[in-house]
Amino acid sequence: MMATANGLTATGETWSDWADAFAVRLMERAQEAEKQRTVLPESFDEAEKAGFFGMIAPVGTGGQGLGFGTFVDVVRRMAQGCPSSAWSLSFLSLHAWMLAKFGAEAQAEFYKDGKMPLCPAPLAPTGFAEKVEGGYRVNGRWEWATGVNHSDWVLVNALEKDTMIPRFCAFRIGEVEVEDVWHVSGMAATGSHAVRVTDKVVPEYLTLPAMQMAAGASPGEALHPNSTLAFPLRAGLALVAATPALGAAEGALNAFLERMRAKTQAFSGGAKQADMPSTHLRIGEAMATVRMARLVWDDAVRALEAEGPNGAAADIEALVRLRIAAANVVKLSTQAVDIMANAAGRVHPSFSPPFSGICAICKPCAAM
């Protein structure tokens, strides 16, 4: 189901209200999602029903055409419940936006039947494309195809054999081989498996030079004027990738405070840990570190929205600062969760820096 064009979800809620309520349900499902190594069907269905996958896709494709700031705020809220699910769902939504950069013939296939195309997009050019009549013959293997468990397309980046220039090629899911390789200790629910393409010919209209995908001059920009398609992809991608880490740290802080209020300190004659001066110091340090991560993130969001409309002409120094800010968001979020895990007295067995698929201090651990 498509999102509406009025800034509300397809179910009539504000996006922030929907994300907050969705995060609660994602938290309840987080451990099972990690166990199953995929976003659970009910979580995926909720996101699709709300129109989440079309949030930033241009209105002309059937999307909502909202800004990146609104989009990543929803992702941040979702990640407070389950970073793995927020990661996967957010990239499927971002990739639906990326496919709008293709030409009209490709878009007629991507967005047919009133449905957003669901498509992982491993970006490293680890395969090759050879020019043949009518298209390109593609061979290669790509990591990591986040969201492939729920997808009907796969977008890979291949080097043209004659020029060594990267070109994105879109394949239907049945044309690629999915390799089940995502056996990890954290973020397992992203299901970020590898994909392989063997001697498949893709029509030229289902390909796009990587430079056009990166920023500026893509066919989709002419088809969808006044959209965000000109925004520099790498900068937007960096911010989207950093956002689940911030949401995870915020969710961990909420759980940490709840744990501290209830926990009795060992060998203390029944004293509450919340009454211990050392706990106050840890709480203050954790809160300050999460706050720093949020401030850096806020600044990065403003920078993207300010420079994004300039497309390929965006200020390089500003984009570099944005990329550095995204890295610092993850760094600070990691530090904050480490502080809380140490103060809580036990690290969740699934915790794996920079952040886990389930909160590092979750309710089951409170009983330990």
Report the helical percentage. 40-55%
Radius of gyration: 21 Å
Low-confidence stretches: 347-368
- According to CATH, the homologous superfamily of the largest domain is Butyryl-CoA Dehydrogenase, subunit A, domain 3
SSE-based structural type: alpha+beta
Biggest β-sheet: strands ordered side by side in the sheet: 5-6-2-1-3-4-7
The average pLDDT value, as a whole number, equals 89
- Contiguous helical run count: 11
Categorize the overall geometry.
globular
Q: Give the end-to-end Cα distance, rounded to a whole number of Å.
A: 43 Å
Multimeric state: single chain
Extended strand count: 7
Report the major sheet: 7 strands, mixed
- Total of domains: 3
- CATH architecture assignment name of the largest domain: Up-down Bundle
> Mind telling me the CATH class of the largest domain?
Mainly Alpha
Q: What is the CATH topology of the largest domain?
A: Butyryl-CoA Dehydrogenase, subunit A, domain 3
Order of H and E elements: HHHHHEEEEEEEHHHHHH
Q: How large a portion of the residues is in β-strands, by DSSP E? A: 5-15%
